[in-house]
Design goal:
The chain has 537 residues and is α/β, with parallel strands linked by helices. It has helices spanning 34-37, 48-58, 78-90, 101-113, 155-165, 173-179, 223-229, 242-267, 286-295, 312-323, 342-351, 362-371, 404-413, 479-492, 513-520; strands spanning 2-7, 18-23, 26-32, 67-71, 95-99, 117-127, 130-138, 142-150, 193-196, 199-202, 275-279, 300-302, 357-358, 376-379, 393-397, 422-426, 447-449, 467-469, 471-473, 496-501, 527-530, 533-536. The chain has 15 helices and 22 strands.
C-alpha cells in the first residue's frame, strides 16, 4: 500500500512543512519544503513541492496513493482546507485522515527505531493543543497514550521565551545551547520554572500576551520576565555579557534537570523496559540528550534524524501504513531525499558555463584537499532528511587546524564565533576519540565528551566544554563518506572531519546541484565536489 504523510499548515506558526512516502510500510522518501522553495522553515506553507519530489523519487503518480495522513486532528475544518489544497493541485483527493501532532512524532521515533517496545516521549513548543505526550508503544499493541503535557507547561515554550530574551528568535534555540557552556548556571529561574521530582512547572504568565504572539518573529517574553531577571533583554547583535551567558547556562540546566526528572517518572511505568524513543523539537537539544545518554536510565535511546516537525510527515506515513494493514519497517538511514546523477550534474555545469574537471575517486580527491587545509563543498548521493548534514550535503574541513573553526565561521558560515562545529568520524574509530558509551550515534543527535588526551588532534570540532556533537559513519550506510574519512585518517592520522551543513547563514541546506553552485560562488569555499566533478576557484 502507498501512504503519503504530510505536514504543513495554513497559520503562520506552523513550520517545517514536509512530505513522506511509505510503500508497504517502508519510508522510501522524506522531503522538506524548504529545500525546494529555498524559504527557511517555510512558515505557514503546505508541502506542495515536497509532495511532488516524493512522487518523483518513487516514480509513481498521485493517483497511486491509497491514503493521505496529516497532523491537525484538533484544528477546526483543517481536513476541508487540506482537501481543497490537494484537489486544487492534483485534481482529486484520496482518503484523508487527521492524527494528533504528538502521536505522529511518537510514531516517527518508535516505528523508525525498529524496537519491539519502548517508552516514548514527544516534547516541543506545542502542537494540536498540547506541548507533549508520554506514551508506551509496542509492535503488538501500538501506541498507548499515558499522559499529556499542557501548553501552559511547555518546556519548549520556556526555552523559546528565554531564546528571545537573549536576543534571538524562534529557530535560534540551538544558539542558546551553544552559548550555555560559556556561562555558569548561577541565575535563579525558580520563579519562572520550578523543577521537581516529576518534571517541571512553568509559569506561562511570563509569556507575552499583550498582545498575544501572532507571529514567530514577535518577542515571546513579557516585561514581567525583565523585572524578575533584573536586566533588560539583550539587544540582537549586541555584546554578550557574562550575565547573558549565565542566563543561557541556567536555561539549559533547568531544561536538562526537568526532562531528566520526567524520564524517571516515565521509566516507572514499566521499569523492566530500558528503551526510550524520543522526538519533537526539544529532542534537538543535543546537550540535553548527552545527559540522558550518560544518565544510564535507558539501554537504548532512539532519536530519529527527523526529530522536529519535519519528521511529522514520516510519522503520519507510518500511522497510515498501520491503518492499511502494513507492517512498519525501521528507518535505515537519514538519506531519504533525492539523488542527482552525474549526467544531470554535468548538464547543470555546462548550462551555467562553469569550468570543471571530472575525477575518478571523489573520496580520495576530497581527503587530499582537506589534508591540505582546503575547505570543500561536498555534494553526493541522496540528500539527508532532517536538520543535520550527514555527509551528503556538507561543508568539510580539516579539524586538526586549530584556526579552522574561526575560519569557517568567518569566511563561509558568517555566524557567531561561539558556535561549535561537529565532527564526522568512522564508526570503528569513535571510541579512540570520544566517550560514546558504546552506542552507535549516526545522526548528530547527541553531544559526548571528547577524550582529553586526543582533543589537541581535532580541536576545531571540540567545543568550549570539551564536548562534540558526533556523527558516527558506517561503511554500510555511507561507503563514499566512510572512504573519505579512512583516506583522511591515512593522511593526517585522524579519521575525523569537520562537518557542517552546506548552506549559508539563514538559508536551507542545499538540495540541487544549482543550489550547491550558487552557495559555492557566494562564499569563501575553496573547492566544490559535485558527484564526480570538481570545481575550483
Amino acid at each position: 500500500m502507498i501512504v503519503l504523510g504530510i505536514n504543513g499548515g495554513i497559520t503562520i506558526n506552523q513550520h517545517e512543512p514536509s512530505a513522506a512516502l511509505s510503500i508497504d510500510g517502508k519510508i522510501v522518501a522524506s522531503c522538506e519544503e524548504e529545500r525546494y522553495s529555498r524559504n527557511k522553515s517555510s512558515f505557514g506553507y503546505l508541502p506542495l513541492l515536497a509532495i511532488n519530489k516524493c512522487l518523483e523519487f518513487a516514480n509513481i503518480k498521485f493517483e497511486d496513493i491509497d491514503i493521505i495522513v496529516s497532523p491537525g486532528e484538533t484544528y477546526d475544518n483543517f481536513n476541508l482546507h487540506l482537501i481543497d489544497f490537494i484537489k486544487h493541485n492534483f485534481g482529486s483527493c484520496p482518503k484523508l485522515e487527521l492524527v494528533h501532532h504528538h502521536i505522529a512524532h511518537i510514531a516517527s521515533s518508535f516505528y523508525g527505531s525498529g524496537l519491539e517496545s519502548s517508552h516514548c516521549l514527544s516534547l516541543d513548543a506545542g502542537g494540536d493543543g498540547i506541548s507533549g505526550i508520554i506514551a508506551y508503544a509496542s509492535k503488538k499493541e501500538g501506541i498507548t497514550r499515558l499522559d499529556d503535557i499542557t501548553n501552559d507547561n511547555s518546556i519548549g515554550l520556556f526555552y523559546t521565551m528565554m531564546t528571545y530574551y537573549l536576543g534571538y528568535i524562534t529557530g535560534d534555540e540551538y544558539k542558546v545551547m551553544g552559548l550555555a557552556p560559556y556561562g555558569e548556571p548561577a541565575i535563579d529561574l525558580s520563579r519562572i520554572i520550578s523543577i521537581h521530582n516529576d518534571g517541571w512547572d512553568f509559569d506561562s504568565t511570563f509569556l507575552r500576551n499583550d498582545p498575544k504572539p501572532r507571529s514567530p518573529f514577535e518577542p515571546m517574553h513579557d516585561k514581567k520576565l525583565i523585572d524578575v531577571l533584573g536586566k533588560p533583554n539583550r539587544l540582537p547583535g549586541s555584546e554578550i555579557s557574562k550575565f547573558y551567558k549565565d542566563v543561557a547556562a541556567s536555561t539549559q540546566k533547568a531544561t536538562e534537570n526537568g526532562v531528566l526528572n520526567l524520564l524517571d517518572k516515565i521509566k516507572s511505568y514499566k521499569p523492566e523496559n530500558l528503551n526510550l524513543c524520543y522526538s519533537g523539537g526539544v529532542a534537538l537539544n543535543c546537550s540535553l540528550n548527552k545527559e540522558i545518554l550518560y544518565s544510564d536510565k535507558f539501554e537504548n535511546i532512539y532519536i530519529p534524524p527527523i526529530a522536529s516537525d519535519n519528521g511529522l510527515a514520516a510519522g503520519c506515513a507510518y500511522l497510515g501504513a498501520i491503518m492499511l494493514g502494513d507492517n512498519p519497517k525501521p528507518i535505515e538511514s537519514a538519506y531519504l531525499g533525492l539523488e542527482y546523477t552525474n549526467a544531470s550534474i554535468h548538464d547543470e555545469l555546462e548550462s551555467n558555463g562553469v569550468s570543471y574537471k571530472e575525477i575518478d575517486d571523489p573520496s580520495e580527491t576530497a581527503s587530499d584537499l582537506i589534508s591540505q587545509n582546503k575547505i570543500i563543498g561536498w555534494f553526493q548521493n541522496r540528500s539527508e532528511a532532517g536538520a543535520r548534514a550527514l555527509g551528503n550535503r556538507s561543508i568539510l574541513a580539516n579539524p586538526k587546524d586549530e584556526n579552522m573553526k574561526d575560519l569557517v565561521n568567518a569566511k563561509i558560515k558568517y555566524r557567531e564565533s561561539f558556535r561549535p562545529f561537529a565532527p564526522s568520524i568512522t564508526e570503528e574509530d569513535t571510541s579512540k576519540y570520544f566517550y560514546n558509551k558504546n552506542k552507535i550515534l549516526p545522526f548528530m543527535n547527541f553531544t559526548v565528551d571528547a577524550i582529553k588526551e586526543r582533543t589537541k588532534e581535532i580541536n576545531s570540532v571540540v567545543h568550549f566544554n570539551d564536548t562534540s556533537r558526533i556523527q558516527m559513519v558506517s561503511k554500510d550506510k555511507n561507503p563514499k563518506y566512510h572512504k573519505l574519512l579512512k583516506h583522511l585518517g591515512d593522511k593526517t592520522g585522524a579519521p575525523v572531519v569537520l562537518n557542517t551543513s552546506f548552506n549559508l547563514k539563514g538559508q536551507p541546506i542545499v538540495e540541487t546541484p544549482r543550489d550547491a553552485l550558487m552557495t559555492f560562488f557566494g562564499c569563501g569555499l575553496d573547492v566544490l565536489i559535485l558527484g564526480n566533478f570538481i570545481i575550483s576557484k
